[in-house]
Automatic annotation (TrEMBL):
<feature type="domain" description="Beta-galactosidase 1-like first all-beta">
    <location>
        <begin position="387"/>
        <end position="491"/>
    </location>
</feature>
<dbReference type="Pfam" id="PF21317">
    <property type="entry name" value="BetaGal_ABD_1"/>
</dbReference>
<dbReference type="InterPro" id="IPR026283">
    <property type="entry name" value="B-gal_1-like"/>
</dbReference>
<dbReference type="InterPro" id="IPR019801">
    <property type="entry name" value="Glyco_hydro_35_CS"/>
</dbReference>
<keyword id="KW-0326">Glycosidase</keyword>
<dbReference type="InterPro" id="IPR017853">
    <property type="entry name" value="GH"/>
</dbReference>
<protein>
    <recommendedName>
        <fullName>Beta-galactosidase</fullName>
        <ecNumber>3.2.1.23</ecNumber>
    </recommendedName>
</protein>
<dbReference type="Pfam" id="PF01301">
    <property type="entry name" value="Glyco_hydro_35"/>
</dbReference>
<dbReference type="InterPro" id="IPR048913">
    <property type="entry name" value="BetaGal_gal-bd"/>
</dbReference>
<dbReference type="InterPro" id="IPR008979">
    <property type="entry name" value="Galactose-bd-like_sf"/>
</dbReference>
<dbReference type="Pfam" id="PF21467">
    <property type="entry name" value="BetaGal_gal-bd"/>
</dbReference>
<dbReference type="InterPro" id="IPR031330">
    <property type="entry name" value="Gly_Hdrlase_35_cat"/>
</dbReference>
<feature type="domain" description="Glycoside hydrolase 35 catalytic">
    <location>
        <begin position="29"/>
        <end position="342"/>
    </location>
</feature>
<keyword id="KW-0378">Hydrolase</keyword>
<comment type="similarity">
    <text>Belongs to the glycosyl hydrolase 35 family.</text>
</comment>
<dbReference type="InterPro" id="IPR001944">
    <property type="entry name" value="Glycoside_Hdrlase_35"/>
</dbReference>
<dbReference type="InterPro" id="IPR048912">
    <property type="entry name" value="BetaGal1-like_ABD1"/>
</dbReference>
Length: 609
């Protein structure tokens, strides 16, 4: 029988894989046999404009870190199963990692396939989660899909491993699986696929610091890292008990927290964060600060969570009270952590500068029903219930329309299940909103009326057992007790809007002021000085989407906490800049550019483990 190092067809010797750069012994992490430790920070290339990658990576280096870690969201690279994964431009992870190396940083890559990250659907493509295949299991159908994804991704990364001269020193196996399921054979299969596709550097798992989570998440002969926000001493004792020889590595230290719409802006006090960091790195401990720089959930990529059964959507800002703020500002937490990390090199990065504040007048565009008529695609007859997935759409909106008799009296429109928010119109007039389920009282006129239900996907659940849940009108709509049975459904995808075609001037409406009707609005402003970052404020507006120079910046909402939208300078240009808003409730007055971020009323938050 031929050796495993010999190809039977040619008897040519295949070189043995390079040894991992990192190993461990006696509770110490070793780099090529010499004691070392990882001082990393999370920075996601998909949340930072590519023109700012180098700037933000340098700020990590200035913080005193030696490593950047990043997730890889599968759905960002392959939103459609019919297309090959895209690794160009904003999705060019190879370029990002090469810049990291040029700045002087090692890299940790976390390819999932599930990543959480407050990213829609936890990074899993909707076409996969809607397929009915059991998720995050050793089911061959799921593993085959992961295998194909890794086959496209990992060859781009293996030449960047540290043991062949690149920056990548470690790769994470799955992500916090111990808080999701109890199939350890699945985690082992993910590790096997990573090795099969050429990963030779150190593999590690990452789980919360409890026996329950570690039981399902750890693998033999694979470093068991922890994720936590506090109590590093108890976590160190736990891992020493479970893995006596392994070094202490906190793969996520939550030094801040993300925000949901309708809550406070979560912050973590500087002294608290710096003190916990000091407790982690003492006695040779390694760490990755989550987040070192949070960035922005541009477009429609922000995720959501189920909190006490209620869907809570994540804000566009992913500032996360990180030491390097969303707009690049070096915060007091940055300097306190830099001291804890023992940084001695000078800070090379300057504090960012911003455009001068200004007020911008707004022009009203078409009302929302007319916008939907122009933007909706693929109307088709559907049953009383149908999901986004059944209609072959993913993000954005689906417009459901029906004609039904409304008796000449006050009556109830009852919505038994909406996933996740609906804006309801009767004969073109807005009559109310529904989140998940509820009813709206309307007045009928004894004639047939056109009902329009615009269902919005505000982000797919990214954590827990609700990952992969469907969006759309999933339960019937009733007029009092009578089911409305005949519907047409049309996808409305904001990522493909023809903004020029939609910007036709509005028809004058003398019956009510502009602010009482949802719809399109446009504005422009000139930059006559240096092009810099800015923060866009929308006082008096309701909720909707905003584009800057044709780029879908993201969602905004009056419920807060986020009050301004970060606009990075690479999206702007000298001369005239265009803003388009799709307002779903009521159009406000003027817009404002502000020199500072306003992320809302603050609430101290520490995850207690």
């Amino acid at each position: 029988m031929p050796s495993a190092l010999v190809t039977p067809a040619s008897d040519a010797t295949v070189p043995a894989p390079a040894a991992p750069t990192l190993s461990w012994a006696g509770n110490r992490l070793l780099r090529e046999g010499t004691r070392t430790r990882i001082l990393a920070g999370s920075l996601h290339y998909f949340r930072v404009h590519p023109d700012q990658w180098r700037d933000r990576l340098q700020r990590l280096r200035d913080l005193g870190l030696n490593t950047v870690d990043t997730y890889v969201p599968w759905n960002f690279h392959q939103p459609s199963p019919d297309d090959a994964p895209d690794f160009t431009e904003w999705r060019d992870i190879v370029a990002f990692l090469r810049i990291a190396a040029e700045v002087g940083l090692d890299a940790i890559v976390r390819p999932g396939p599930y990543i959480c990250a407050e990213w829609t659907n936890g990074g899993l493509p909707t076409w996969l989660t809607a397929s009915g295949i059991p998720l995050r299991t050793a089911d061959p159908r799921f593993l085959d899909a992961v295998d194909a994804w890794f086959a496209a991704l990992l060859p781009r990364l293996t030449d960047l491993q540290a043991n062949v001269g690149g920056p990548v020193i470690a790769v994470q196996v799955e992500n916090e699986f111990g808080s999701y399921g109890d199939d350890p054979s699945y985690v082992a299969e993910v590790a096997r696929l990573l090795r099969a596709h050429g990963v030779t550097e150190m593999l590690y798992t990452a789980d919360g610091p409890t026996d329950l989570m570690l039981d399902a998440g750890m693998l033999p002969d694979t470093l068991a890292a922890l994720t936590l926000g506090s109590q590093p001493g108890a976590a160190r004792e736990l891992i020493r008990r479970r893995r006596p020889d392994e070094p202490f590595f906190v793969a996520e230290f939550w030094n801040g927290w993300f925000d949901h719409w309708g809550t406070a802006h979560h912050v973590r006090g500087t002294a608290s964060a710096a003190g916990t960091l000091a407790g982690i790195i003492e006695d040779g401990g390694s760490v990755s600060i989550y987040m070192a720089h949070g960035g922005t959930n541009f477009g429609l990529w922000s995720g959501a969570n189920r909190v006490d059964g209620r869907l809570m959507a994540t804000t566009t800002s992913y500032d996360s009270d990180a030491p390097i703020a969303e707009d690049g500002t070096l915060t007091p937490k940055f300097f306190a952590m830099r001291e804890v990390l023992g940084a001695t090199e000078p800070v090379r990065s300057a504090q960012p500068e911003f455009l001068a504040p200004q007020r911008i007048d707004v022009a009203r565009g078409a009302d929302l029903p007319a916008v939907l008529d122009a933007a909706a695609t693929g109307p088709r007859r559907v049953a009383a219930t149908s999901s986004f997935e059944e209609l072959g759409t993913d993000d954005g909106f689906v417009r459901y329309t029906a004609d039904t008799l409304l008796p000449d009296r006050e009556l109830r429109l009852v919505f038994e299940r909406i996933a996740d928010r609906a804006f309801v119109f009767v004969d073109g007039e807005p009559v109310g909103e529904i989140e998940e389920r509820g009813e709206i009282v309307v007045r009928g006129h004894g004639a047939r009326a056109r009902i329009v239900v615009l269902v919005e996907n505000r982000g797919r659940v990214n954590y827990g057992s609700s990952i992969g849940e469907r969006k759309g009108m999933l339960g019937p709509v009733l007029v009092d007790r009578r089911i409305v049975q005949h519907w047409e459904a049309s996808a409305v995808d904001p990522t493909t809007f023809d903004l020029e075609a939609l910007r036709a001037p509005a028809q004058p409406d003398t019956e009510r002021p502009d602010t009482e009707r949802p719809g399109l609005a446009t504005a422009s402003f000139d930059i006559t000085s240096a092009v810099r970052d800015t923060h866009l404020a929308l006082p008096g507006w309701g909720t909707g989407l905003v584009w800057v120079n044709g780029f879908l910046l993201g969602r905004y909402s009056e419920v807060g906490p986020q009050q301004t939208q970060y606009v990075p300078a690479p999206l702007l240009r000298a001369g005239t800049n265009e803003i388009v808003l799709l307002e779903l409730r009521r159009r406000g007055g003027a817009l404002e550019l502000r020199a500072t971020a306003e992320l809302g009323p603050e609430e101290e938050y520490v995850e207690e483990f």
